[in-house]
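Hi everyone,

Forwarding the result from last night's run.
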Amino acid sequence: MKPSPIPDPSGTLACIHCGLCLSACPTYLETGDENQSPRGRIHRMRALEEGRMPWEADTLRAIDLCLGCRACEAVCPSGVPYGAMLEHTRDQIGKRYRRPWLQRLLRRVAIEQVFPYPERLELALAPADVVRALGIERWLPGPIRDALALVPSRREHVELAPFSPATAVAPGGTVRRAGFVAGCAMPVLFSATNANTVALLNRAGFDVVLPPGQGCCGALHAHGGQLDEARAFARRNIEAFERAGVGVVVVNAAGCGSTLKEYGSLLADDPAWAGRAKDFAARVRDLTEVLPVPMPTSAPAHPPGSRVTYHDACHLAHAQRITRTPRDLVKAAAGADYVELPEADVCCGSAGTYNLTEPEMAARLQHRKISHILATGARTVITTNPGCLLQIRAGLIAAGAGDIEVLHLADYLVREPGSGTGRVTTV
């Protein structure tokens, strides 16, 4: 079968080469290289499709080095659908170009066959605990040592109940029914965060259902260009949440939320699923879209005068265009202790699994982010995506600032009032 062409050529050609995307693109900010800018990559995408460039390693390098953060979309005056173009171009790369075996092992096996499955991920992370217990990290090769640094040294395991009743009523005296997307990495790396998310939803007047049969949202596959696999995950989740009969679908991971909201586009060409996918996508909400500001009964515990800042997860700020509500929630809790982070919406270098596939550029962006955090004097950094949490924590530790805490917004808001210890509750 002949590979399908890159979609929406009119959207591609809508790029007017104005350059407004340059100052938003993290790789261009780091390199100053037009090839590593959105408009440079768009030119390359068209050249590849039209046969003016070969599908070879040298010409595909700029596509690989793109974070997929979609910051360019948020500032583009022409509405160029860059994220969709990138995913479909990467889908074509998978069909037309055979990567070196080590890259295939990392992308097609480690990332796509391990990360989306909690049981496999838990098993894969077990050696990290052994290595730390033996204290032999320094003897490992650099790339493995860097990857190990991203794994939390302490991982709680908190089971979620299939049903968690509301502990309060929403404005108007109503109780709503929400389905919760548990995710694939979150239950392994941040299960307490999931539990705290459910607790916040209960406080906000939601009965929370954990639909059985749900799985990975498909983001890792979609961002990597494995669109058929992403569609299979989408169908599974749509079916699971339909069975649960929920009115709203809530997610606490920015990258997952972005993909879930785009199921309608992902399955638009599938007559059997297009309508169901569009309906599902319309019901997806990020956690910050359903919580009231301020959250009742939450009084985050941090010493008075201890600064708090917020980092925008790319797929919340750029793909979902949600920047105000999470800040409002943090500001309402932190009060005068809140400080804005310079370049808050510039990618930290995590970008899903980018810090594994492109560690050099990821490290440069991590250093850039950590420098800005340290400049604020903040003692607490809040964000809304697991990859960002891991990347920023590892960067702070490497910079000798591991005492600065990095928290998911849900963990920050659910803290016990007046504890003064920074203790996070689990349910």
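Confidence is low (pLDDT under 50) at residues 6-10, 417-427.

Cheers,
N.
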